[in-house]
Amino acid sequence: MNWLRNFMFGRNGVDHLSIAAVLLGLLISIITSFIGIPYLRLLPLIPYGYGFFRVLSRNVYKRQAENRKFLSFWLTVKSRFNNWNTRRLDKAHKYFTCPSCKASLRVPRGKGKVIITCPRCRHEITGKT
Ligand SMILES: [Zn+2]
Q: pTM for this structure?
């Protein structure tokens, strides 16, 4: 295992973006296995190749910067999904989005027609709960 340690010295190694690239390749290979076009099966080699390129890259600072960008993008996607899922599962409240400042406003359901004042920008919206 010493040769591997020596080989990987000064290289980027496995990070979140390289794992994501390999997982994307795996997903594409599963999808393309159901589609009968023969050359389409070579498509996952692109994300696989990118993942391995990242692991073996010696330009560690650039790879780390790319990984940080990817993580910030991924956390945004994840938090949007969590917000959507919270809204979906919460049957006791109705959610409105302020048209002026895009704030998320939560009001209890079953109160009829209500006027909601945004706590952030004082914009008033009328909604049916
Ligand atoms: Zn607002």
A: 0.73
pLDDT for 91 beyond 90: yes
Confidence of residue 26 (pLDDT cuts 50, 70, 90): very high
pLDDT of 27-83, one tens digit each?
A: 999 999 888 787 888 999 999 999 999 999 999 999 999 999 999 999 999 999 999
Q: Ligand 1 centroid vs 69 CA: distance in angstroms?
A: 29
Structural domain spans, the chain:
1-89, 91-129
CA of 75 to the centre of ligand 1 (A): 24
**Cα angle at 74 between 92 and 30, to 5 degrees?**
100
Residue 99 CA, ligand 1 centroid: distance in Å: 7
Please give all residues whose CB falls under 5 A of ion ligand 1, grouped by chain where several chains appear. Answer: 98, 100-101, 103, 118, 120-121, 123
DSSP letters of 51-89?
Answer: HHHHHH-S-HHHHHHHHHHHHHHHHHHHHHHHHHHHHHH
